[in-house]
Amino acid sequence: MRRLPVYLLIDCSESMAGAAIETVNTAVQGMVRDLRATPHALETVAMSVIAFSDDARLVVPLTSIEMFQLPALTIRAGTSLGRALDLLASCVSTDVVKTTKERKGDWRPLVFLFTDGQPTDDWHEAAERLKNLTSPKIANIYAIGCGNDVDFSVLHEITDIVLRTADADAEAIRKAFVWITASVQSASAGVGEGADRLPELGDDSALKEVPKGEYTPESEPRQVFINARCSKTKGHYLMRFVRATEEGPYVAKAAHKLEACDVGFGARLPPVQSSRLAGVPACPYCGNGSAAVCGCGGVMCIDMRKPDGVACPHCGIVQQGGFTAGNFDVRQSAG
Fold this sequence. Notes:
By secondary structure, the protein is of the alpha/beta class. It is built from six helices and 17 strands.
């Protein structure tokens, strides 16, 4: 039986913390369930998942949809899109059975790239290498950007088919994966006729096509992420700040626990001035509504009613005499 290989490239950077990564995990499980209930898909589809953040990881090698099992996707700092593209090219070259005079090979793969941010590695060479493998065409690649921090000009360097979600919330992500599922179902039903046609982008999909050259990225990101630790439990968490206007401050939006993941800092990102941060999201472990920066550079939650005697969860130094207010540098996460 000729297979229809499907590759999901999923952004698992820190900006996906919280509802976004939870929705992706649930959506992929739902996708597998729906494909197993579709006779054409059950017979032909084999799926692989590549997660990218600080690096690119082959989470699930190309596996029949009947046997497919997805471990929970976790987040890490960074958005290594270039490494994900290199890994994709390597996997497709190794996995996909080519047509020869003696046998029919696999159908042309479908690739769905899902991201909510901008690359933090050098992606140019990887995109060029992927293009060089497209004669004949290596795969049908569909790039989906979620939210306002995506640089769609980057995605257009990878594929001509670039889509965006109407919003950046969990419901928009869920609808995007409903469309991806319908696309795979449609492709699996049409492979016998050599059809590459995918479902139209209806209002239900929450997706819109992004014409090349239409999008101009802003000079500054719309979100800032700060790695912090709870001063009581030492648990890692991520503070999310969002800028609503071009020149406005970054306003505290949410704090997400960073459990079972690697945390890191954006080596290429300059520090953000504390004066540009409005408010502090409450610590998700203990509920403290204030934060401070230790002399070591680490950010921690604090109880302003009891500032003395707090041990920094990063370096262990005990704070005596309270904390100094004012404008200072805060180290950004890679997001």
